[in-house]
Amino acid sequence: MIQSLEEVLTGKQAVAISGHVKPDGDCVGSTLGVYNYLRTYHPEVKTELFLEEIPPAFSFLSRSAEIINDVPDRAPFDLFICLDCGDLKRLGDRAKYFEEAADTLCIDHHISNQSFAKENYIFPDASSTCELVFQLISKEKITKEIAECLYTGMVHDTGVFQYSCTHRSTMEAAGFLMECGIEFPVIVDHTFYQKTYAETKAMGLALMKSRLHLGGKVISSILSNEDFASIGACRKDTEGIVAQLRCTKGVEASILMYQTGEGEYKLSLRSSSIVDCAEITMKYGGGGHVRAAGATLNGDPETFLSEIVAEMQKQLEAGA
Fold it and tell me: Which of 9, 22, 158, 161 has the most crowded Cβ, counting Cβ within 10 A?
């Protein structure tokens, strides 16, 4: 297993960087962190970052304007660096760059990751992929711009350092990044807490439509295309809803399903201490972390809801 990012860069002339579809804070932060590192310390290497459109809140991060959103034709890369991505299909159309590359590296913390790259740096217990990138970069080479990227990702995947994935190493890494001159209170407020009006309305509707199960230990909400249309919101406005549902007093696990196509729904699960979200979502071809995972479902959402609640009941009874 590699000990530093430099180990895989030797002799490379063309490098592609990418992460999972619908990039979140950790995906954006880790990919931009590595991209800024290569552009700063290896300008001789042709480096390109490919991601779907990122949330506007992350546009302040250095070189975010250089992200390539489409999938143009490219000659095979010497190295493809995949970050925060549990399997090849989560790369979306960008998987073709991975398949054609001479060498591949995956840096990730999803428990469902089966080490699909040639070189893998995978630690499921890590707080975030950004923390893993922090481990692979020489501390004296972490600029303010890189620090902003990595801190942002850590903030989002730890829920501002409150989730169970937060460890001593996480806090020590965050402390180091804070001392790099970043405006950490602004990053937390601007990217994690602030919501657009559409996001606030989507949150309100999801809460209004929510239901309790298993004596209040599980909460769920389902949003359809009609729901989004009724409030002038869209799918990207669902950020943070499933986590807020889980914050309901007495709730162990939360379930959010929102429509993404004809008969297609995105499933997101969160739990506090007992329910294994990854185990459940992997049964539907998804994956993620023990306390946070997702999948894409095709069919009747109410049928899936009944199945998921039943599985959660088994886990809660076993863990009681």
Answer: 158
